[in-house]
Amino acid sequence: MTPVPPPAAELSADDARRIALRAQGFLGAPDRRAGVRGVLRHLGAVQLDTISVLARSHELIPYARLGAVGRDTVERAYWTDAHAFEYWSHAACILPVEEWPHFAFRRRAYRDRPQWYHDLPDGAYDAVIKQLRAEGPLTATDLGGAKNKGEWWDWSESKVAVERALMYGEVVCTERRGWKRVYDLAERAIPDALLHDDLDDTECLRRLVRLAGQALGVGTRADIADYHRLKGEQFDAVVADSGLVPVTVAGWSKPAWADPQALASEPRGRHRTTLLSPFDSLIWERARTERIFGFTHRLEAYVPKPKRVHGYFAMPLLSGGRLLGRVDPAREGSTLVAKRVFLDSPKTVRPMAQALREAAGWVGCDAVRVEYVDRPELTAQLVAELT
Questions:
Q1: pTM
Q2: Is residue 226 helix, strand or coil?
Q3: Is the separation of the CB atoms in 347 and 354 below 8 Å?
Q4: Pairing state between β 46-47 and 92-96
Q5: Are 54 and 359 in contact (CB under 8 A)?
Q6: How far apart, in whole angstroms, are the C-alpha atoms of residue 201 and residue 208?
Q7: Spatial contact of 254 and 263, defined as CB atoms under 8 Å apart
Q8: What residue ranges of the chain have pLDDT lower than 50?
């Protein structure tokens, strides 16, 4: 690991928390004029996931920061005017199109990869490229079907080929349609000025480390590297030239780095009260969430139901710059169902009710039903606040 220079600043734990909140768009007035596209540029990556309870996670991200943005507006903002593309970052993520050149290091790594889980029959790759060139943007179904007759990972040869082409950068996912990827040739989908792999690995990594540091405000080596799933040694190789500065944070056992702009002024302004997707970049790294907020959260969607503690898709409640509880929501017709509600204290009742009412209105529900509260004595108060 590269030696860390003397810190540029000493931050309290509270300083670090507020810096992180502002960097992620939860402290201060939201930039409504920039809208969803502004949120994407500011965060640098918005994670995609198949789970849809209130809405899909990539819809919940701008909602949490901007409020009740129309869901159709969210989709159009992401996928029109060659504004964004989908690629592998923290996971499958929507990325600003101007960052295409900075993922050249990852495209090259995929091209040099010696072994793949799926075999690719001779001619299958060229056939997919030829079909896309002739017919324009297509889904895997259009290309001949996504699966064989086996389990979910048993992809058809056309699906294997187009996903390989996506990783190589010859093909781009230009939108999701009914949750299916829509593929097109990069030469058509990416603006000419950005369609290149000219940047070497060092320049790509330097840019992504800087972007991650700006999006987080302050973070450890692991925090910043994890944002775009870089290796620790990749972070070490470029951090000194990334523009980030070393800092110390009270209570953090490991060195940290911060965006100098985040240190230039004190984080102030109104806090958002909202429910967070578990895939929100404010909380997607569990150890960081525990360190900054003293809040342990685990996505339990893939935990066997009898072993779940908080529920299938429990969403943390952010209010006053703190994580104060969580709710596992569901929808039944025009009713938002709070299946399991967890409240830190009686003071959490009102912000939880506010967040539930706003979320219900956003997804077109006109009622909220509470099924379980971990503090039964607060149930009546919560129901009263909701009505």
A1: 0.93
A2: helix
A3: no
A4: antiparallel
A5: yes
A6: 11
A7: no
A8: 150-152
Q: How far apart are CA 196 and CA 100, in angstroms?
A: 8
Return d(Cα 120, Cα 99) in angstroms, integer.
29
- CA geometry: angle at 105 spanning 100 and 111, to 5°? 105
Integer distance in angstroms from the first to the last C-alpha of the chain?
56
pLDDT at 151: 46
pLDDT, position 7:
73
**SS3 of 153-190:** CCECHHHHHHHHHHHHCCEEEEEEECCEEEEEEHHHHC
Max Cα separation, the chain? 66
| Gap between the Cα atoms of 72 and 80, Å rounded | 12
pLDDT at 5: 67
Structure tokens at 370: 């509470």
Taking a C-beta distance cutoff of 8 angstroms, is the pair 218, 11 a contact?
Answer: yes
Instruction: Identify which of 138, 82, 66 has the alpha carbon closest to the alpha carbon of residue 74.
Output: 66
Summarised one tens digit per residue, pLDDT across range 35-89 is 999 999 999 999 999 999 999 999 999 999 999 998 899 999 999 999 999 999 9
Residues 281 and 224: beta-carbon distance below 8 Å: no
| Amino acid code (one letter) for 217 | G
